[in-house]
Design a protein that fits this description.
Blueprint: H1 4-11, H2 14-24, H3 30-55, H4 60-78, H5 81-108, H6 114-120, H7 131-157, H8 162-190, H9 207-212, H10 220-223, E1 228-235, E2 240-247, E3 250-255, E4 263-268, H11 269-277, H12 282-287, E5 292-295, H13 297-306, E6 325-330, H14 339-353, E7 357-362, H15 391-400, E8 403-409, H16 417-424, E9 435-437, E10 440-442, E11 452-458, H17 468-481, E12 484-491, H18 507-523, H19 528-535, H20 541-560, H21 572-581, H22 585-588, E13 593-600, E14 605-612, E15 615-620, E16 628-633, H23 634-641, H24 647-652, E17 657-660, H25 662-671
Parallel strand pairs: 1-4, 6-7, 6-8, 8-11, 11-12, 13-16
Antiparallel strand pairs: 1-2, 2-3, 4-5, 9-10, 13-14, 14-15, 16-17
C-alpha cells in the first residue's frame, strides 16, 4: 500500500507532466502553451498546499516546478509572441536548467542540499540531525546536479526532440540517479570507521549488564570536560531503564530514570546486544529505525569513541606519568583461600584492565615478628628496623608503590593480628619528631610520601555498621601519615562470596569491585556510588542472620552426632531457605503457585513457598489452597538437598508423597536449580 509521502512524491511531477502534455500536443501553438502554464501552475500551487498540510514539509522539487511554471506563465503572457515562442520550443531545456540550479545553489548559499527535504520524507525525524544524514544527501545532490546538467545539454543539443529531451534524461535518472541514492547511504556508513566489537568472551549476556559495565570502557581522554547524562530504555528480556552520568572525566552507571538526560536511547534489548557484538552496524541500525534516539545526536555519534579506551599498553606512559604501581597487603590468616582474596581478585582485575601494575603480599606466608618498641629505627639505625625478617624487603616495596591496599577481614571489629603487626613494623618510615598541624600532633614521614591507600575488608555480619571501628583507625592513619585514603571497599556477609547458590545475586557486587579497580587507576580514587554498591548486602540482613544461625545449629547438631561436616546441611528450615536462595526467576516466568511442605520425622513442621511475579518467599504454616503439597520426613528432604539420595527414586520408593499439580513438581529442578 502506497503511503502519503510516496504518493506526494509521485504527484509532485504532475504539474510539469500536465504542462508538457497540453503544450506539446498537436501543433504546439502559443495558445496551447498559455493554457498549459496556467493549468500546470494551478496544480503546482495545489501540490504545495497539500504537502504543507499533510507532511509539514515541502521539497525543493515542488518549489522548482512552481518556479518554472510561474516564470513560464509570465513569459508567454507578458512577452511578445516571438519571444514567447522561444519558451514553447525550449521548455524542456529550460526545465532541466532550472533543476540544475535547484540542485546546485542551495548548499552554496548555506541551505540544506536538494535531496535533504525529499529524504526527510523517507527517514525518521531522529535521523535528520545527524551529520551523516546531511553528508550523504549532499553527495547524492551533487550526483543529481551532474545528471540535470547533462539532461539540459542533451535537450539543448537535440533541439527538444523526445530522444534527447525525454529518453536520455530518464535513462540517466533511472540508471544512475535512483540506484546511487538508494545504495550510497549503505556504502558510506559501511565504510565509516567503526568501534571494534568487544571481546565476545568478556561481553555481558544482557543489555542491562552491558550498560552497567560501560564505565569500564570509559575513555576520559576522549570525553574531556564533557558533562552529560545518557538514558537507556531497553525493552524485552535483559532490558530495563538505566542511565550513565559523565562528569569531571568520570563515568558511573545506575538503574532507573534520569531527571533530564541529554540523550535517550530507546531500543529492543536484543538489537542493542547485536550492535555490541558487531552483528549490526550501529549507525545503519539507527538510519533504518531499529532503535530510536531523543536529544543530543552529536553525543550519540561520539559514544563509540567515548566508550572505547586505549589499550593498557598504550597508557603505560602518558604525558610523562609512569604506570601506577599498586601494592596489596593481604592480611587474612586464610591467605589465598579466604573471602578477602575473592574481593581483591576482582578489584585487581579492574585495575589491570586500566593499565596498573599490581602485586599482592600475603602476610600469612611471611615471617613478621611484632614490633619490640626499642626505637632502634629512630635512634641507632635511623630508618632500619633492628629485627631481621621479611619486613625489611616489604618496607622497600611500600616506599616504591603509588597505592597501598590494606586488605583484611574484620576480626573482633578491627584488622587481623597479621595486619596489625605489619602496620606496627612500618615505624621506620616515620621520623621521631612531633609536628603540630592545627590541634593535631603527628610524626612526619622520613621519606617523601606521595602514596595513596585503599581499605578492603569483609565481615560475617549482615551489614556495614560493624566496620566503623576499622574505618576510624584508617581515618586516623590518613590524618597522621598524610597518606590519603582514596577508597573503602567494605563487603558485609563475606561468607556469601563462597556460596555458589548466590552466584547470580553477587554479579552486581563483582562488577562493582572490578569497576572500583578501574576508577582507582583512571580517576585516582574510588567513587562513592561504586562503594555504595559494594556495601549493599546481596540478600536482606535478617535473612543472612537467620541462615547463619540455622547453619551453625545444623553444624553443631551434626558435629554432636558425629556426622561429616563439609558443605552438608542437616536442618530442614535451612534447606528450605536454601531453596528460596536458589530460586530461578527466569524459569518461573509468569508462574503463580504455592508449594506446601508438610514435614514429619525428626524436624516436623509446616512451611509453604509462594511464587508470584518472579519472586519467591517462604512462610511458616499451612496454606489453605496450595497448588502442590509435598509430604516428607525432614531427613528425606534434607538427604535429597545434600544429594545423598535421588529425588525421583525416593518418590518412586514412597519415601515422600505429592498431591496436586504434578507438572509443577516436574519443574522444581529448574525453579530451584
Amino acid at each position: 500500500m502506497i503511503n502519503t509521502k510516496t504518493l506526494l512524491f509521485i504527484t509532485s511531477f504532475l504539474p510539469v507532466a500536465t504542462f508538457k502534455i497540453i503544450a506539446r500536443t498537436g501543433d504546439a501553438t502559443l495558445m496551447q502553451a498559455k493554457v498549459a502554464v496556467v493549468v500546470g501552475l494551478t496544480l503546482a500551487i495545489i501540490q504545495l498546499a497539500i504537502s504543507r498540510k499533510t507532511t509539514k514539509h515541502t521539497t525543493y522539487l515542488e518549489w522548482a516546478f512552481l518556479g518554472f511554471l510561474t516564470a513560464g506563465t509570465a513569459w508567454v503572457y507578458l512577452l511578445p509572441a516571438s519571444v514567447a515562442d522561444m519558451f514553447v520550443a525550449n521548455s524542456t531545456t529550460i526545465l532541466y536548467f532550472v533543476l540544475f540550479l535547484t540542485t546546485l545553489l542551495p548548499q552554496l548559499f548555506g541551505y540544506d542540499p536538494f535531496t535533504y527535504a525529499i529524504a526527510k520524507q523517507w527517514q525518521p525525524e531522529t535521523v535528520w540531525k545527524t551529520p551523516q544524514f546531511k553528508i550523504i544527501n549532499l553527495h547524492i545532490t551533487y550526483v543529481f546536479c551532474i545528471i540535470m546538467l547533462a539532461a539540459c545539454l542533451s535537450s539543448f543539443v537535440g533541439q527538444g526532440k523526445p530522444l534527447f529531451a525525454i529518453v536520455i534524461p530518464f535513462i540517466l535518472i533511472l540508471a544512475i540517479g535512483i540506484p546511487f541514492s538508494r545504495l550510497y547511504p549503505f556504502y558510506y556508513i559501511k565504510n565509516q570507521p567503526q568501534t571494534p566489537p568487544a571481546n565476545l568472551e568478556d561481553l555481558p549476556k544482557t543489555a542491562r549488564e552491558l550498560v552497567m559495565k560501560m564505565p569500564l570502557r570509559f575513555n576520559r581522554a576522549v570525553a574531556g570536560d564533557l558533562r552529560a547524562v545518557i538514558q537507556f530504555r531497553f525493552s524485552g528480556d535483559g532490558g530495563g531503564n538505566l542511565f550513565l552520568t559523565i562528569s569531571e572525566q568520570k563515568c558511573s552507571a545506575q538503574e532507573g530514570d534520569a531527571p533530564s538526560p541529554n540523550l535517550s536511547i530507546i531500543a529492543p534489548a536484543d538489537i542493542w546486544m547485536k550492535i555490541a557484538k558487531g552483528e549490526i552496524n550501529r549507525q545503519q541500525a539507527f538510519m533504518n529505525g531499529l532503535y530510536n534516539v531523543e536529544g543530543d545526536m552529536e553525543l550519540l555519534l561520539r559514544m563509540g569513541e567515548i566508550f572505547s579506551p586505549q589499550p593498557a599498553d598504550k597508557r603505560v606512559e602518558k604525558k610523562g606519568l609512569q604506570e601506577m604501581k599498586i601494592l596489596a597487603i593481604q592480611g587474612s590468616p586464610r591467605g589465598r583461600q579466604g573471602n578477602t582474596e575473592i574481593i581483591l581478585h576482582d578489584f585487581f582485575k579492574g585495575a589491570q584492565k586500566a593499565g596498573a601494575q599490581v602485586e599482592t603480599i600475603y602476610l600469612n606466608e611471611k615471617k613478621i615478628r611484632p614490633c619490640l618498641g626499642c626505637y632502634a629505627c629512630w635512634t641507632k639505625t635511623p630508618g632500619v628496623c633492628a629485627i631481621d625478617d621479611d619486613m625489611t624487603g616489604l618496607l622497600q616495596k611500600v616506599r616504591e608503590c603509588d597505592v597501598i591496599v590494606y586488605a583484611t577481614p574484620l576480626y573482633n571489629y578491627n584488622m587481623t593480628a597479621l595486619m596489625k603487626a605489619f602496620q606496627e613494623r612500618m615505624l621506620p618510615l616515620t621520623d621521631p619528631h612531633l609536628i603540630k598541624e592545627g590541634d593535631f600532633y603527628r610524626h612526619p614521614p622520613r621519606y617523601e610520601n606521595n602514596r595513596k591507600m585503599v581499605l578492603i575488608s569483609n565481615c560475617g555480619f549482615p551489614d556495614t555498621q560493624y566496620f566503623e571501628g576499622l574505618r576510624q583507625v584508617f581515618r586516623h592513619l590518613e590524618k597522621s601519615s598524610k597518606t590519603i585514603l582514596v577508597g573503602e571497599i567494605l563487603v558485609p556477609a563475606g561468607e556469601l562470596l563462597r556460596q555458589q547458590v548466590f552466584r547470580e545475586q553477587r554479579k552486581a557486587l563483582h562488577d562493582a569491585l572490578e569497576q572500583a579497580g578501574v576508577e582507582l587507576v583512571r580517576d585516582g580514587r574510588i567513587s562513592s556510588s561504586t562503594e555504595a554498591i559494594v556495601r549493599d548486602p546481596i540478600i536482606q540482613p535478617a535473612d543472612i542472620a537467620e541462615m547463619a544461625n540455622l547453619w551453625w545449629d545444623s553444624y553443631l547438631s551434626g558435629k554432636a552426632e558425629g556426622l561429616a561436616q563439609n558443605s552438608t546441611v542437616y536442618d530442614i528450615k535451612l534447606v528450605l531457605k536454601g531453596m528460596i536462595a536458589r530460586f530461578n526467576a527466569k524459569a518461573a516466568e509468569s508462574l503463580h503457585a504455592v508449594i506446601q511442605f508438610t514435614v514429619t520425622g525428626k524436624q516436623p513442621g509446616n512451611w509453604f513457598v509462594t511464587i508470584d511475579e518472579g519472586k519467591c518467599t517462604l512462610t511458616e504454616g499451612e496454606h489453605k489452597e496450595p497448588t502442590l503439597t509435598i509430604k516428607t520426613p525432614s531427613e528425606i528432604w534434607v538427604a535429597i538437598a545434600n544429594k545423598e539420595i535421588d529425588s525421583q527414586k525416593a518418590f518412586m520408593e514412597g519415601k515422600y508423597s505429592v498431591e496436586g499439580d504434578m507438572v509443577l513438581m516436574m519443574k522444581m529442578k529448574n525453579l530451584f536449580a
